[in-house]
């Protein structure tokens, strides 16, 4: 008897798990349960993820295209250069002095002098009219200054160059640049509107899928409510189901964007090379890809949260 009492005293008393441990176990169980429930319906899950992924990939791809267009227009320096054709009586020494004085301006990044001989050689090589040009006997081309602006006030610099006494003609595509900037601004706004609309569409897809899951488990939810289960306990598996849908849709959207980038890389490189540019298509880095995944997860969670809150209020038993 003493030995039994001693063993009873020596046995450690069973302690109830702490509240954080219970909370963690419940969330892990809900996470695994929701994943298993999605895996038991593979076709429905794949259809939901595919619809969400396509709806999210379209505005994401358009946004990347607009960012690359901004990068392309900023990287092509020739679109900003201002050509100053000097008068015929300005010799090479005066043109060089003028180039040095213009290069000292705060709104000028660089100045390149192209002599009439250089311009004639470029025209001969590009036009294929070498014999006709040689028949002229003299060079009709003036000295050209190629001015690269610094800053955004290209139009102001062009007006200042046109006022120079040595300048005969100033060539600057300011109107073209303003129109291009306007089109790019319109494209960005259109991408924003499309992103909101398709994001709402993805939200509705998640909500409708979770609603069907709730309808199939209506009796089970009613029993849990009668047993005193809280709305948070009942809602938790559906929220994690929305999280899985959002994660799958985000991964699919990133995969589609990566595949589209690989398909467009070579023809874009050939096109940029024809303009003398080394432009390369820029995709999403690791940070922005992670932000996309976080956004899609939040989108799936929000859709599930909105629908479960509505249907839990409808299925809550009425007190008599």
From TrEMBL:
Subunit: Forms a membrane-associated complex with FtsE.
Source organism, top-level taxon: Bacteria
Domain spans labelled FtsX extracellular: 81-163
Pfam families reported for this sequence: FtsX (PF02687), FtsX_ECD (PF18075)
Keywords: Cell cycle, Cell division, Cell inner membrane, Cell membrane, Membrane, Transmembrane, Transmembrane helix
Function: Part of the ABC transporter FtsEX involved in cellular division.
Subcellular location(s) of the protein: Cell inner membrane
Domain ABC3 transporter permease C-terminal positions: 193-309
Biological processes annotated in GO: cell division
Ion transport among keywords: no
Keyword Membrane among record annotations: yes
InterPro entries assigned: ABC3_permease_C, FtsX, FtsX_ECD, FtsX_proteobact-type
Organism from which the protein derives: Pseudoxanthomonas broegbernensis
Cellular component terms per the entry's GO annotation: cell division site; plasma membrane
NCBIfam families: FtsX_Gneg (TIGR00439)
Protein name: Cell division protein FtsX
Family according to the record: Belongs to the ABC-4 integral membrane protein family. FtsX subfamily.
Transmembrane segments: 43-66, 190-210, 238-264, 286-307
Membrane topology: Multi-pass membrane protein
């Amino acid at each position: 008897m003493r030995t039994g009492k001693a063993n009873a005293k020596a046995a450690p008393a069973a302690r109830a798990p702490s509240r954080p441990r219970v909370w963690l176990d419940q969330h892990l169980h809900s996470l695994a349960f929701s994943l298993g429930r999605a895996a038991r319906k593979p076709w429905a899950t794949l259809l939901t993820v595919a619809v969400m992924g396509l709806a999210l990939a379209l505005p994401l791809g358009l946004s990347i295209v607009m960012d690359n267009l901004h990068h392309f227009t900023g990287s092509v320096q020739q679109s900003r250069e201002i050509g100053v054709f000097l008068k015929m009586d300005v010799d090479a020494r005066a043109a060089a002095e003028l180039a040095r004085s213009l290069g000292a301006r705060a709104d000028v990044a660089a100045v390149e002098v192209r002599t009439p001989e250089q311009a004639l050689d470029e025209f001969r090589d590009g036009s294929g009219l070498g014999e006709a040009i040689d028949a002229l006997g003299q060079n009709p081309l003036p000295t050209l200054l190629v001015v690269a602006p610094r800053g955004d006030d290209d139009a102001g610099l062009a007006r200042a160059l046109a006022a120079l006494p040595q300048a005969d003609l100033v060539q600057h595509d300011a109107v073209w640049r303003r129109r291009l900037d306007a089109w790019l601004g319109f494209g960005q706004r259109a991408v924003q509107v499309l992103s909101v609309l398709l994001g709402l569409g993805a939200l509705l897809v998640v909500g409708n899928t979770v609603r069907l899951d709730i309808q199939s488990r209506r009796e089970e939810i009613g029993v849990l409510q009668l047993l005193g289960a809280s709305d948070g306990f009942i809602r938790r598996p559906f929220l994690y189901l929305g999280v899985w849908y959002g994660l799958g849709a985000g991964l699919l959207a990133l995969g589609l964007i990566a595949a589209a980038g690989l398909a467009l890389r070579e023809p874009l490189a050939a096109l940029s090379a024809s303009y003398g540019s080394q432009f390369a298509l820029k995709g999403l880095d690791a940070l922005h890809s992670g932000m996309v995944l976080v956004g899609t997860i939040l989108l799936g969670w929000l859709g599930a949260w909105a629908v479960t809150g509505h249907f839990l209020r409808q299925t809550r038993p009425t007190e008599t």
